[in-house]
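The instructor's notes for this session suggest beginning with a concrete chain rather than abstract definitions. Hand out the sequence below and ask the class to guess, before any prediction is shown, which regions might be ordered.
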Amino acid sequence: MSAVQRINAVIIPVLFLAAVLYGVLESSLAPARAEGGTEFVGTIMSVDTTSGKFAVKKDGGGSRFTFVANEKTHFDGGAKAVKDLKKDDHVAVLYQVQGSQYVALNVALKK
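After discussion, reveal the predicted structure:
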C-alpha cells in the first residue's frame, strides 16, 4: 500500500465522521425549524394588543424576541388572538422573518 493510499484510508473515514458529528451538533444547537418557519419556545414578557405585538423570552434565558401577529396568524391551545395572551404564558411560536419583523405564523399556548 502506497503512502497516499494509507493517508486516504485514514483521512476519508475521519472526514466522514467529522461531517456526521457536525450535522448532529448543528441540528441540536439551531432553533427548531418547521416547514415554512422557525420555532421559538418561551415565556411571554409583555403583550401589546393595539399593535398586535408580544415579547417572548426564550426558555433557559438568553434571547428575547418581539413577534407581530397578523390576520394570517393561527392560535392553538385556547388562545384565539393576541388579546388572549397574557404575561407569563408559556408559548411555542412558529415564525418567519419578514423584513425587520418576526411575524408569528402560529402561536401555541403550552401547559
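Then share the key points. The two ends are 62 Å apart (CA to CA). The chain has a mean pLDDT of 83.
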